[in-house]
Design goal:
alpha/beta, Helicase, Ruva Protein, domain 3, 2 domains, about 350 residues, TIM Barrel, eight-stranded parallel barrel
Length: about 350
């Protein structure tokens, strides 16, 4: 199986959730947490792309270039990316973004208008940036037209082309058909960006991988416009269970969400239901009522509840064996103290 490259767009698509009010400290801390979690590409900026901070799209708390600089200060391995929509963003803005620390750009056009991005793709390549052709609202055309537009992006010099489900409207069969066609007809890698508007973001992301996509997007805790994007943490968990090679670290991605993102959202008066505790139970394969007992045991013995549940899964604990969780917590605590 091919290696999967993870792009996290919490600081860009997730910006819609906070009405583009991420602070410079948010940008630095979240970017640092994402790099620590092994994310390959971190996208940042106004939700509507470079210099999208306007009366039409909503003013951001900070300009894009300050956010880019703040995030870049924390990165040594992950690529920092920006989104550029021709007609909003400009080549001049992209040059400024690169000076601030951007290493990649996603040129986003409507699915039938790749030619609108030709100038920007070629300019970005001349600048030495990693370039993604981002075909938005991919559900709005047939597979033949989509393939034709993707080939344009490839001819302009894009390094990757995305089937972008901006409306969260695609079914798995649609994703498979369109990604498969691009995989068959293009020489460059294919990516997929999903929204969870009809509850299919993770499923569609996996379907895209099965069809040949190797670049997949997510947001911490499934943040993002509409019902949000694919949850980065859930995606990593499922990729682990399915045996795909990738660079993501599940615990560190969960920590970035629970210890950095969610506290930031709370300060802004926002709450989200991340369900990360429930996710780790599914990941471990344990009885769903174990969570409360594992939490109590973890607090009592100073052990990470995730480690308790994972060990219970390895031991194939079943309902009625809740007392085993205390035994596991004691053993883990003793190992830690050695």
């Amino acid at each position: 199986m091919s290696r999967i490259y993870l792009t996290d767009t919490t600081l860009r698509d997730g910006s819609h959730t906070v009405s583009h009010q991420f602070t410079l400290d948010d940008a630095a801390q979240i970017a640092g947490g994402l790099e620590n979690a092994g994310i390959d590409i971190i996208e940042i900026g106004h939700g509507d792309g470079l210099i999208g901070s306007t009366i039409n799209y909503g003013f951001g708390k900070h300009d894009d270039f300050s956010l880019i600089s703040a995030a870049a200060s924390q990165l040594t391995k992950s690529k920092l990316a920006v989104l550029l929509l021709p007609g909003i963003g400009t080549v001049e803005a992209l040059q400024k973004a690169q000076k601030a620390g951007a290493k990649a750009v996603r040129i986003a056009t409507h699915v039938t208008e790749a030619d609108m991005g030709e100038e920007h793709v070629k300019a970005a390549k001349d600048m030495g940036l990693f370039v993604v052709g981002f075909l938005m609202m991919a559900h709005m055309t047939d597979v033949n037209r989509l393939t034709e537009e993707a080939l344009k992006f490839e001819s302009y010099g894009a390094d990757v082309v995305y089937v972008t489900d901006s409306g969260g409207a695609m079914l798995p069969k649609d994703v498979f058909e369109k990604v498969s066609s691009l995989k068959k007809n293009l020489k460059i890698p294919i990516g997929h960006h999903a929204h969870n508007n009809i509850g299919l973001a993770v499923s569609n992301s996996l379907t895209a991988i099965e069809a040949g996509a190797t670049y997949i997007d997510g947001c911490l805790s499934g943040l993002g416009a509409g019902a949000g994007n694919t949850s980065t943490e859930n995606l990593i968990a499922v990729l682990n269970k399915m045996g795909y090679e990738h660079g993501g670290d599940l615990y560190k991605a969960m920590d970035a969400s629970e210890k950095i993102l969610i506290p930031s959202l709370k300060k802004k008066g926002l709450t989200i239901n991340s369900h990360l505790d429930a996710m780790i139970m599914g990941y471990a394969g344990v009885y769903s009522s174990f969570l409360l007992h594992a939490r109590r045991a973890g607090e009592r013995f100073g052990v990470d509840v995730r480690d308790i549940l994972m060990e219970a899964g390895r031991r194939k604990a079943v309902g009625g064996q809740e007392d085993w969780l205390i035994e596991i917590a004691v053993e883990l605590s003793n190992k830690t103290s050695l």
